[in-house]
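As described in the Methods, two query proteins were run sequentially through the folding procedure within a single session, without resetting any intermediate state between them. The first query and its resulting structure tokens are shown here.
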Amino acid sequence: MEKRTFRDTTLGTPQGGIVSPLLANIYLHELDRYMERYTALPRWEKTKRRRRKEANFVYVRYADDFVVLCNGTKRQAEVMRAELSLFLKTTLCLELSKEKTQITHLNEGFKFLGFWICRAMGQKGMITRVTIPKEAMDKVKAKIDLALSPSRHQDSIMTKILGLNRLIGGWCRYYRYTGKASSQFGKLDHALFWSMAHWLGRKFQIKMPTVMQRFCCDSTFVIQKQRLSRAADFPTRQYKQRFLKPNPYLTQERRFEREDLPNESYWTGHEARPGMAD
């Protein structure tokens, strides 16, 4: 699609397609191998580099998004960016975006894969925190407001709760490992509860006390065994055994608990006729 116009092409990959990250992993594997000259150094070699006032680097990549952490000067970080730009251009025929490739201090923070990563003062000194960015909170609240807007009061309750459960469940599972996630989840619960309450009031033309008496149960809303999920239903978690999260589906180490995948059926988000699911 280009400016809402479909153009047939034999080059490139569809934006947002499932094959795009797979091809990125295959093609950018050469970049991973190139960065091993800095990341695969033994501890004694990294210590030697620090004594010579040379920077060490940490490299993390997910599909076509990657970040390089440097414990040196800003000038050394700029040299690394130029080196990566040259490698991508000469070896992989890729252009490194100067607008998206920013150099920032960890104290100022940066966003990576939807997480906000920043160094701040903790109880035992300076620590690195991974938190939920404000943009992510605003985005999920905007989706809730859109689903529960006054113009959607004719939708069925069953379908509405089913869709909201998918939205809340996916968002909370993604951010449950961040710092201060419980407080952010609490704010989301408050916004979801009252948006749903007002939506039910508009749908049935009833006042708030009647809505609470008829639908509210255990700080949420239940209609015909269909329960609206709360962000508090997804307890926060922490990684304590490793610095990097292991892949729970590839590792063979038994000491890592594999995450349980949700067994709910998918939701298309569409009703042939508004309210027919009830």
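Immediately afterward, the second query was submitted; its sequence and tokens are:
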Amino acid sequence: MVALESIPLFRHLNRAELHALRLIAQERRVTAGQEIFREGAPGDGVYFVKNGRVEIFTGSGAGRRIFSTLGPGEIFGEMSVIEQRPRSATAAAAAAETEIYFLPRGEMLSFLQSSPALAFALLQQISHRLRELNQLHVRELVQAESLAVIGRFAQGIVHDLKNPLSIISLSAEMFAMPSLSPDIRAKSQLRIRKQVERIRDMVGDILLFTQSSKQEAKLKAGDYRAFIIELAGDLRAEAELKEVQIEMQNLPPVAPVRFDPARLSRVFFNLLHNASDAMAGGGTFFLRFELAENFVVTELEDTGHGLPPELAGKLFQPFATHGKTEGTGLGLSICKKIVEDHGGAIAARSEPGRGAIFSFTLPLAK
């Protein structure tokens, strides 16, 4: 229980001012859950908690949103002193019987006019309360944005999984056909196995990204041309689902490259996904290769509308998207990490009359 003179706002008052304050203060007792004032009611004065707890909230039932819970000595309803507007929230006693002090608005204003020190202290209290509300608002905005990002992230994962699942479904139907030749049946079985492995790798990449940890790429020197020729068949199978054609404009150079086939494949599939989204009515996805002094350059181009200027400078950042109803923008950031884990670099550009052009380098094996 807090005496009136012990309330922080009044501690600096002299004896005469405290006496005048006691003359205008009213003591009230409210039962647990009883409303002290309701949202939208006229602001008739300011309140202080003498004993117990008071909740400040808006709404009711499942939509009830508590802003703060106040204890002995704390002020509420103070905005009515400086503006005659309806209450912006409801105040009610919490779980136990509560005692409060009430100072009517008119008497409080007169008292403030005669005590500049009290007026200044009240303004400080109001400023502190507004700062608390601002911080609460910022936290809620951050939480809401975090939930939205999680939603977009989950939606993007589902979007990325749809294509391999579709290929598995079609291949499983073919595999079950009794008239299927052993050769085609074996190819269907192999395609299913590859797509299952791809889903596993995708999940691994997502875990790698969300855990923010560095995974050592399992790099081994290999035949990059053979890798690309085999991968092109899988890319074509997926591209057909979106009516996209894969055109390899030249063969990769015969040069040894250190790479992780499973992870590097993800780069091609992610870029194909983006290209397919940019070519909703179908199009062509070009692959071309060049041998430089110490590395191999792989370039991929689509026949879409090119890269939007809005994404310049943040294309490979997580969750950067443009004009997509699905996906999170995580795909390109994963591409960047995979290429960099291989010791290479990835870049993008757009030229007038052409689609998006992505290129990445891979160092030659020594």
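The chain has eight helices and 15 strands. We note this only descriptively and draw no conclusion about the first query from it.
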